[in-house]
Amino acid sequence: MAQQTISHADTFKAGDAKGPLLASDGTRGANIMLPTVEVIAIPVAGAAATISAALATPAAGNLLIDGSGVGGAISGGVWTATAARNLTITSNNAGEVATVSVYGTDINGNLQGEVITFAAAATIVGKKTFKTVTRLALSATALGTISVGTGSILGLKMRSIGLMRSTVENNVVLTATGTFLPGSTTVQTASNDDNRARYTPAAFTAEITVMYFPDLTKEGIGVGMTTRPGPNFVHSDQGNSNGAP
Question: Which CATH number does the domain 52-152 belong to among 2.30.30, 1.10.150, 2.20.25, 2.60.120?
Fold first, then answer.
């Protein structure tokens, strides 16, 4: 079935077409807020070695995408998520200071990239959400055993101007709605927050339905990366972590 976009208008309004103009914006009528619904198919909780298995002091360069694949699947050196989500990096060495540059795509197929920096013997949580991960680049030889996993933040398709509610399957409303982030209009870089809405559910037990009021501007679905992490960007049609130059 063909699908058509009704409008790219910044706002929708209803009311008397011949009524007085509003002093605020020179238009007539009242704003209409149209909710959107995104169904996230049974995501699982994050796992520490989902994308890259525990590697003992790996050298600088591309890391193997060879983890457990939890919450997605690994094929041909590319991890594809069931639900777009953020990444984590973990080291067991207190002196770890290297970075991992992540390359892939977001939930809308836009290019996505992020640089995540180790900090002591801890798990560091990334800010952006990825639908695919095509390359992981380690900046320097690791001091300890490291892994790349997935976090609990799920990516949505658009920016938002407000959460309506979230539910689990069978329309049972969650007792705790989790954490909702609306996104921003900030140009994507390798270090800032994702500019689409994100949702961290209270539990990963069933299909999640997120209902929210989207940003209806033309840029509401966010944009791809304009500044990518490092000069040797490799996208999925050019290579990946298990075979990139």
Answer: 2.60.120
